[in-house]
Structure formats: C-alpha cells, structure tokens
Amino acid sequence: MVFGMVSEDNVIEDSVSVEDDFDGDDYDYDDGGDYYDDDYGDAGDDDDDYGLVEDDDFDDPGAMVSRRPKLGYTVLQEADIKQRQEDDISKVSTVLSLSQVEATILLRHYNWNVNEVHDEWFSDEERVRKSFGLFERPVVDVSYANEFTCGICFDLLPCDNFASASCGHSFCRECWQGYICTSINDGPGCLLLRCPEPSCKAAVGPDMIDKLAPCEEKEKYSQFLLRSYIEDNREAKWCPAPGCENAVNFAVGGGDFDVTCLCSYRFCWNCTVEAHRPVDCETVTKWMLKNSVDGENVNWILHNSKTCPKCKRPIEKNQGCMHMTCTPPCSYEFCWLCLRAWSSHGLATGGFYSCNVYEAEMQKGNVDAEMRREMAKNSFEKYTHYYERWASNQSSREKALEDLNRMESENMEKLCNVQCTTMSQLKCITEAWLQIVECRRVLKWTYAYGYYLPEHEKTKTQFFEYLQGEAEAGLERLHRCAEKELDKYVTADGPSSDFDDFRTKLTGLTSVTKTYFENLVRALENGLEDVNSTACNKTASPRSPASPRSPTGRNGKGRGSRGKESPRAGVSPKNVDDTSK
User: Where are the annotated coiled coils located (predicted)?
Assistant: First the structure.
C-alpha cells in the first residue's frame, strides 16, 4: 500500500500498470521520487490502508469500480415528471375510488406521498374529507330558479352564468374568474384554493380552473401543480443550474450526495450548492458565509481601523503622525496609539511619533483591543491565503470548461483532419478535459477543507498539505499535457509520427489522476484518521517535520501552506521539466 502520483515518463512506458513506480525503500524527496513509498505501507497491518493509490487496484481494474457507489438518483425531465405525477394520481384514484380531481387534491395536501394518502384515508375517511373539503354532496340546497343573485357582485343573472364547487355555493362566472386569476397570480398558494364563501372550506380543484380560468392562468396553474410534485417531495429537488428545468430524484441511502444533471451541472443534492466533496455541507455553509462581503468587511475594519473614542466611528490611519482628528461634526483629537485625548499629550508623553502612555500600558498588559486587532489581522491573512487559492482554482475550472467547449466545437474536427484519425480515437482528449474540470473542483474545495483544519493538529495539517500538493502537481501535469502539448498536434502541417504515443500518455495521465483524486476525496472525507495512528508517527520520526525531506515538500512547505511557494511537493526536477526532452 503506497501513496502517490506517477511521472509522465512512467505513464508513457506503461499506462496501465504503475506498481513498478512504488518500489523505494525510503520516502526521499531528493532522489527523483514523487510519491510515498513502501515505507508507509509497512508501518501497519494490511488493514491499515490509508494510501491514495493501491497496487492491487491496477492488477484488477474492476476492484476500484466495485467500491464506487452506484448511482442512487434519477434525473427527471418535464415529461418524466408529468408521467410520474399522472401515475400517482391514477393509482390513488383507482385504489380509493375517487375522481382524478379529488385524488389530485389529496396528493397535493400529503406532499404527493401515495402511501400516506392511503394510510390516512383508510384510517378515517370522514376526517380526511372534512379536513380537505372533499364533499360527497352539496351542503346547500340547489335552487332551480331561472335567475340567481351572485353572492359577490350581487348581480341578478341567468342560472347558466353561475358555477359552484362541490359545496354548491353558486357565484357568477365573472366573479369566479376574478377570484381564481387573483389567486393564481399570487403564487403557488392557488393549489390550496377554497370556496369564496367565507364559512365554506370546500376545495377548488383543477376542474374548476380548466372550466373558468383564461389560458394564461391555466398554464400558470399547471406549472405550479407540476412544480409542487418536486418541491413538496422529500426525495426530489430541482437542478439549481440557471435555465435547467430538470429534477433529480434521490434514493435515501444511495451513497454520497453528489449528483450530475443531464445539463452536465454537478451539485450536492443535500444542500443544492455545487458539488463540494470532500467538504461536508456544514463546512460549505460556513465557508460561503465567510466569503460574504459583509463578513470580511468587518474583519478588514477590525485590523485596519480604530474607533473614535468620542463618536465611536471607525477611523483609518492614512498618515504617519499619531495625532488623529475625527471628521466633523465630531472633530475630536486623540492619540492613535493610546486613544486618549491629544490635549494630554506633549513632550512628556513622547510627542508626535511615540507614546509613553501606550508603552506603559503595554507593560501592564492593558492593550486587549490591540491584541484583538492583531488576532483579527492574522485571521484575515489566513483566510486570504486559502480564499485566493480557492478562487484561483475556480477560475481555472471555468477556463478549462471554456477550453473544453472550444476543443469540441473547433479543434476536434481540425485535429481529425490533420492527424488523419477518427473522432472515436480522440475520445481520450474529451475525457482528459472533463477530468481536469472535475479535479479543479475537488482541488478548490480542499482549500476550504484546509482552512477549517484544527490548528493544533500540526501533523495532520502537514500530511494534508503534502497530499494536496501531490494532487495539484499531478493535475498540473495532466492540464499541461491536454493544453500545451496537444496544441502542437492541432497546429501541425500533417500527421505526426508520435501522435499515438501522445494519446497513450494522455490516457495514462487521465487514469492515474482520476484514481488519485478519487482516493484523496475518500481519505479527506474520513478525516485522515489513519494519519493519527500510523502515518503521523512516520512523519515525525526519524526526520523532523521541518526538514527538507518532510512530507510537506522539499522546503517544509506543501502547496497548501502559506509563505513563499516551494517546488511542488514530491515532484522531482525530472518530472517538472520532462516535457522538454
């Protein structure tokens, strides 16, 4: 059991088997290796597997696939939703011997749960009918006069101008139409419409809408009814992608919450934010709140300004002098360091550029506000570090999507013609770009993961940063291959003799990168628990974590660590420059 990404040279030599690349006796980052070696694998029993690449997986390609969760969801288009809705209505109507309208009203009230409708109906039919206004016969006597007086507009009109719900309360069609249209234009509440008679609770069903509403309102009502089938269903949600009208039906217990719609948008079914594995929904919520402008404005104000001692407005110091004057109408003059009145300052307190009062207070430990500002500044710097890298990977992902679209729409056909090949043989290029897009997404969220790692767990943080650095290094190799190395084949004057070798190399890099990221996600979702018991001990001994050979990189810093960037963790110069051969 070993960790690591393989180099491009090894991929070219053998794009299927990579176990020969994991035969080191020591994880020495200066000997050309770019991965963990068997030294980690021997640290515990066979069951203590916490590696990100397993040798056995490459001997048996089906092993990795068998451990991946099967799709536990179904993407529903509008026609699928309508069909399911109609099937449920027909099922309830048949079993309970009700009209389609009554079945629709019941299902709507019970959030389209067929089993719950059956249970409640057979438990107490009378109570259900009374609760939801399903009357078996009119509650008022029906008059057989030729004319009626409308109870809303009080006009005397012929009887054929009147209509009523199951209760029998008659109103003229014009008043009914106004009542229905107003309710529909007010929103989805029209699905729970009741009789206009104030004391009556009779339900107004889809049949009344079809009979009395104009075409535009009928269409709105139909859309509300269709959307309620998803929005009121505990197992279905709409795809949040702009302009997408598909829904996803998710089977509880069907694995992780990441789902992919037919529109290609991938999101978390649980919180409907874009897919964010390996970060959980709670962390995503905290991170997105942290990214809000208001939250960071507060932090900026805390470490870049102080409040006026008199009016309490925040003031930013923009000149070197400690003599501060608040803006009118306050105009209070005070010392920036000790926040006391400037009138009490002079040569005895150090003058303009220093403050003996402040120094004395520091010696007594009475500078809590200053400490808080310093802590806020440090916190802001940490956040900025992770946010910049989070946003950078998001930008790279968006650019990769653009490059993928351009490749499919413009360059694929050109590449076919230049290299005299078929589209099916270029499938590896599309797969590589899709993998790049997915890996950028995962890498982006690892920075949110790293931001919330407990600061006291130094070894776990070190180990995480190494794994993150390896992931970034491997992704950069794949991205460079799919972007820059491919370009020379697109712009070539004729077929290239080494194009087949390039395809083999690209396929191998895609496969290895995919496997690494899948295992990285699983390791982070498990909280890197095995690191505490086994790998961390190997990290701390015999070498110091700060040594050049530490698991966080040559200079003791991984790609995810702060400070000046060091070479990619675990990547030898050979691997960084090997495309120049």
Answer: none
Query: How far is Cα 572 from Cα 7, in angstroms, rounded to an integer?
Result: 9
- Find the radius of gyration of the CA atoms of the chain: 34
* Confidence label for 150 from pLDDT (cuts 50, 70 and 90): confident
How many other CB atoms are found less than 10 A from the CB of residue 193? 21
Of 150, 321, 338, 428, which residue is the catalytic one?
321
pLDDT at 562: 41
Amino acid symbol at 398:
E
Contacts of 298 (CB under 8 A, 6+ apart): none
Cβ-based neighbours of 522, under 8 Å, separated by 6 or more: 278
Q: Is 333 helix (H, G, I), strand (E, B) or coil?
A: strand
Is 308 one of the annotated active-site residues of the chain? no
> Rounded distance, CA 576 to CA 567, Å?
9
14, HSE (Cβ side, Cα atoms, 13 Å): 9
H or E element in which residue 314 lies:
strand 314-316
pLDDT per position as a tens digit, 538-569: 444 333 333 323 333 333 344 444 433 333 33
- Residue whose structure tokens are 């070219």: 12
Q: Are 490 and 411 in contact (CB under 8 A)?
A: yes
- Please check whether residue 436 is in contact with residue 489, taking contact to mean a CB–CB distance below 8 angstroms: no
Q: In the predicted model, is pLDDT for residue 114 greater than 90?
A: yes
Strands (E), 478-534: none
4: left (phi over 0), alpha (psi -120 to 50) or beta: left
Backbone dihedral region for residue 168 (phi beyond 0: left; psi -120 to 50: alpha; all else: beta)? left
Say which DSSP state 19 is in: G
Q: What is the CA angle 167-168-174, rounded to 5?
A: 115
Phi-psi region of 480 (alpha: psi -120 to 50; beta: other; left: phi over 0): alpha
pTM of the model: 0.62
Strand partners, 2: 53
pLDDT: is 312 or 332 the higher one? 332
Question: Which residues on neighbouring strands pair with residue 238, listed in sequence order?
Answer: 247
> 27 pLDDT band (50/70/90 cuts)?
very low
d(C-alpha 186, C-alpha 189), whole Å:
7
User: Helices 100-109 and 114-123 sit at what angle, rounded to 10 degrees?
Assistant: 100
Q: Which two tokens stand for residue 159?
A: 């009887």
Whether residue 107 contacts residue 87, with contact meaning beta carbons closer than 8 Å, is answered with: no
**Res 457: pLDDT:** 84
Helices (H), 158-243: 173-185, 206-212, 215-231
Length of the chain: 581
Which DSSP letter does residue 481 get?
I
